[in-house]
Design a protein that fits this description.
It contains five helices and two strands. Strands 1-2 form a two-stranded antiparallel ribbon.
Length: about 200
């Protein structure tokens, strides 16, 4: 191959990743005042990269998997606008000089709507009455709670286990936690009414 005669997708993917890492540092400076999250700022992570077939062949494709967990919607808008502008104004013009049909595609697989905790919600009060737990802790991970809240359903995030054991090798929930969960579900069933 002649490296000077092609657009190496892996090399441009590294430039894309470097821009994301730069944005990640900026996000740390945008921490909302009185944030209840841990960490208190929006996080961005590169989860995977794949491309190329051999070291002596110009890589024609490269895929970068990344995720953003915004603590405020504006951070998501900010990152998407910045990375899209970087692609449009910097990367693509460079690539097109060598190969006019060059392209970069971004696919958004899903977006989670943020959940605004309401410490006095019907859902919080119900769970407290059934469990005796009056805490109103915040979780720093994505759930469907914001979707339910958006359509007017009183919502609380609760359940067995701990995020400390989730999403890793040998993920588990201890039996006592499952027993507590079953007791809670029974309590919800017994207090529910159907209209």
């Amino acid at each position: 191959s002649a490296p000077d005669k092609g657009v190496n997708a892996v090399e441009y993917a590294t430039k894309y990743i470097n821009k994301l890492l730069e944005l990640r540092e900026i996000l740390k400076t945008r921490t909302p005042k009185d944030s209840v999250f841990n960490p208190p700022y929006t996080t961005l992570q590169i989860g995977g990269i794949s491309g190329g077939i051999a070291r002596n062949v110009i890589a024609d494709k490269c895929k970068v998997d990344w995720e953003l967990r915004p603590v405020i919607k504006e951070d998501g808008d900010f990152v998407n606008l910045e990375i899209d502008n970087f692609v449009k104004k910097t990367l693509l013009p460079e690539m097109i000089k060598t190969h006019p049909k060059s392209k970069i595609e971004k696919e958004v697989i899903g977006e989670i709507i943020g959940f605004n905790r309401d410490e006095k919600s019907d859902a919080c009060e119900l769970i407290s009455s059934l469990t005796g737990d009056n805490s109103r802790e915040v979780v720093s991970f994505g759930t469907e709670a914001g979707l339910f809240q958006e359509i007017g359903i009183s919502t609380v995030v609760c359940g067995p286990g701990s995020i400390e054991q989730a999403h890793k090798v040998d993920e588990y929930i201890v039996l006592d936690e499952l027993k507590k969960c079953l007791k809670l579900l029974e309590g919800i069933k017994n207090t529910s009414t159907v209209n």
